[in-house]
Amino acid sequence: MKRVEGLRAALELLGGPQPDDAEADEVAARILDDVRRDGDRAVKRISGELDGEALAFLEVPKSEIDAALGAIPGETREALETAAERVGAFQSAALPESWHDNERHFGELITPVKRVGAYVPGGTAPLASTVIMTVVPARVAGVDEIYLTTPAPGDSLPHPAVLAAAAIAGAHRVFKIGGAQAIGAFAFGTETVPAVDLIVGPGNIWVTAAKRQLFGRVGIDGLYGPTETLVVADESSDPEFCASDLLAQAEHDTRARPILVSTAIKVADEIEAALERQLAVLPRKAIAGEAIESNGVSVIVASVEEAIEVANAVAPEHLCLAIADPAPYIPLVRNAGGLFAGEYSAEVMGDYVAGPSHVMPTGGTARFASALNVRHFLRFMPVVDLDREGFLAIARQAAELARTEQLQGHANAAEIRLKRLLGE
């Protein structure tokens, strides 16, 4: 890991958003154009070219999904059901309701979108948990049609745990398409894949590029890059705990970004030594080791307050306050996809069973974006229902503002009604 000392040096190195990938944007644009023109044929052709074998079919039959649910080990099914229950409970608690003020004659009508497409990456790990984290919030929101896509080449099926998770989470249809072509299929619709109103879920750089380009044509939850975790440690922190939290995310991707911010050189040395011990026996040590070597940073600061200042500048996907008493510092946190407070609030719990969705903003976007949640699937429609008295109370002010802006037609729309009501 690269080491820097001092708050100023840390802010210079780590602050600011991560750059976009121009090459990925170009590739995604070509793929999207092909899918828009040629639908299923383009999806199959592009997938075949990328995977090295022709994509035999696009939709996973329900019978295969049911079979996967019956075939997975009982312990796996219990874990998926526990995750789905807790995510459902968390999202239900966050579910807003329509409201109306009878005196002021305004309110909000809150309604779900009709169709959602959830993308679950394939790659080197079967991310059954991501199915839960994307589909369950949509179901809690009341979305009518929830479609899931996850890549599987040729005539193969997605991993059984992923299909079982789709059944448990409540996905209505499952497709086996990956990459930018999957995003294009959801956005434009094809002969097999319905067009949706909103696309959610993480993906690789081409998926992210496709989502960026389609914003405006279809709803997009966020743009997700490589995973990142920032661990704040002090003299009370357990080095083994801190190291395991950093490795848990580093093993995802060689582009993952593990960051340690500690209050003393001794603390950092102990955690880095624990990292080496744990990495040596990690099955995915090649991936995690490259992430730590290429992207890992160890920062030394004077206090936990300074550590959180660094965290707010980075706006990490995961912020772990791995200290004995995190409560006094929580109000200082402004920018993070998710906050994991205390040494037993391990980020891995958030990945699987704690309750919030693990789909969280990356690349500094936590400065303005939020973790995927039930509100992403809802529309907030203002409602104005003025009666005679309500109109009379504020109509003159509306007309005055309209004339101030030199928009006489606007003023007329208020004043014609005023004259009718007042008999003028």
Indicate the topology.
Elements: E1 2-5, H1 7-14, H2 22-51, H3 62-71, H4 74-94, E2 99-101, E3 106-112, E4 115-119, H5 128-141, E5 145-149, H6 160-169, E6 173-175, H7 179-188, E7 198-200, H8 205-214, E8 219-220, E9 228-233, H9 239-250, E10 257-262, H10 265-280, H11 285-295, E11 297-300, H12 304-314, E12 318-321, E13 338-341, H13 347-352, E14 378-384, H14 388-404, H15 408-422
Structure in words:
The protein has 424 residues and is α/β, with parallel strands linked by helices. It folds into three domains: 2-18 and 226-354, Rossmann fold (3-Layer(aba) Sandwich), CATH 3.40.50; 22-220, 3-Layer(aba) Sandwich (Rossmann fold); 386-422, no CATH class. Helix content is 47%, strand content 15%. The chain has 15 helices and 14 strands. The chain has helices at 7-14, 22-51, 62-71, 74-94, 128-141, 160-169, 179-188, 205-214, 239-250, 265-280, 285-295, 304-314, 347-352, 388-404, 408-422, and strands at residues 2-5, 99-101, 106-112, 115-119, 145-149, 173-175, 198-200, 219-220, 228-233, 257-262, 297-300, 318-321, 338-341, 378-384. The protein has a six-stranded parallel β-sheet with strand order 1-11-10-9-12-13, with helices on both faces. It has a five-stranded parallel β-sheet with strand order 6-5-4-7-8, with helices on both faces. It has a three-stranded antiparallel β-sheet with strand order 2-3-14, with no helix packed on it. α6 (160-169) links the parallel β5 and β6. α2 (22-51) packs across α7 (179-188). The mean pLDDT is 94.
